[in-house]
Amino acid sequence: MAKGLLVTYALWAVGGPAGLHHLYLGRDSHALLWMLTLGGAGLGWLWEFWKLPGFVAQANRPQNQRQSLGRGIPPLSPIRFVAQIIVGIYFGLVALISLSSMASFYIVGLPLAVGLGVLLVAAVGGQTSDFKNTLGAAFLTSPVFYGRPVAILPISVAASIAAQKHRRYKVSRKSEPLSARLYRLGLAYLAFTGPLAYSALCNTAATLSYVAEALGSLLSWFSFFPLLGRLVESVLLLPYRVWWLLLGDPGFSSSSFQDWEKLYEFVHSFQDEKRRLAYQVLGLSEGTTNEEINRRYRELVKLWHPDHNRHHTEEAQRHFMEIQAAYEVLSQPRRPRGARR
Predict the structure, then answer these.
(1) Nearest to residue 126, comparing CAs of 171, 163, 87?
(2) Is 247 in a helix, a strand, or coil?
(3) pLDDT tens digits, one per residue of 43-94
(4) Burial group, residue 10, by CB count within 10 angstroms (0-12, 13-18, 19+)
(5) CB 282 within 8 Å of CB 330
(6) Structure-derived torsion over alpha carbons of residues 47, 53, 59, 64, reported in degrees to the nearest 10
(7) What's the confidence (pLDDT) of residue 339?
(8) pLDDT of 322
(9) CA distance to 6, 67, 215, 273, 286, per residue, from 328 (Å)
(10) Is 108 a residue whose pLDDT tops 80?
(11) Which residues neighbour 113 within 8 Å (Cβ) at sequence distance 6 or greater?
(12) Which has the closest alpha carbon to 61: 129, 15, 125?
C-alpha cells in the first residue's frame, strides 16, 4: 500500500519523538532509535521535517528499484558517523548506570551496549553494517581501558569506524505483518529500558551512585572545552530546573528527593572544581582579582607560546592549551552557590 505524505507529516507532528512516522514508513530501525532517544533529544525529530518527502518516496519505491539501488557501497556520511559515536556513548552511559554492578561488565556488558548503539544508527534507512566486525572492534578496544568509565568514548569511536568501513546496503525483503514488527520493537525497547527501570526502582541508592559516576566521567571529557562543558551541564540540570520552575523549591522532604538533591549538587559543584584546577594551572590562589588573572595569563602565553619554544614544541603546545582553557574558565562570572535558575 502506498504511503501518504500527509499521513506521514501528521504522525510526525503527533508522535514524532516516539518514531510513529518511521514505523508507518517501515523504517523500524529509525523508529527504535527515536523511541530510545526521544527523537534524538528532539533535534533529530525537528531536523527531519524537510526530509520526510524523501522518506515517503523511498518507502513507495517498487521492489525491483530498491534492489537495483542496493548494489555497491553506500556513500560515506559524516553525519551518520558522528551520530554513531554519540548514540554509542549514550548506550554506554545507560549501561554504566544500570548494569555496572554485574560481573565482567567492562569486558562484556559495556562493549556490547556501545556496539549495539552504533549498529542501531548504522541500520537507519536503507543501509546497515557488519554485525561481527562492529562488535569485534568494541570488544577489542574494551580491555585497553578496563575498569574506567572513560572507556565508553574510545569504544564508541572504534566501533563507529568499523561500522563505517563495513557499511553496505540492506537486502530488500518482503514486508512483514505489523504485529511481528511491533513485537520485535517491543522486545528491543524492554531490553534497553528494563534494566534501567529495575535499577532505579529497586536499587535507588546504587543507581544514584552510578549516575554520579557516569556524569562525572562525561563532564571530565569537557574539562578543557569550557563552553561545551557548560552546555552539557545545562542539559543535565535542565529537568531539575524545570521542576523547580513549575513547583518552586519543594523542600526535598522525602529521602528520594534528598538523594536527587545530592546528585544535583554534584553536577552543580563540577564548575567549582574546574575553577580550582584553573587557578592551579595559572599558578594563582583563589580569590585573585581579574586584573591579576589577565596579567598572569599574558605572561604565561608569552612564556609557553609554541613559536617561542621550537625545541620542545609538544610540551609547549600542551601547556599553551591548558593555559587557554584555564583562562576561559576563570573569565566566566561565578554563579552564587544557592542559585537554582
Answers:
(1) 171
(2) helix
(3) 888 888 988 998 888 888 776 555 545 567 888 889 999 999 999 988 988 8
(4) middle
(5) yes
(6) -120
(7) 46
(8) 81
(9) 49, 54, 22, 14, 15
(10) yes
(11) 91, 92, 94, 95, 99
(12) 125
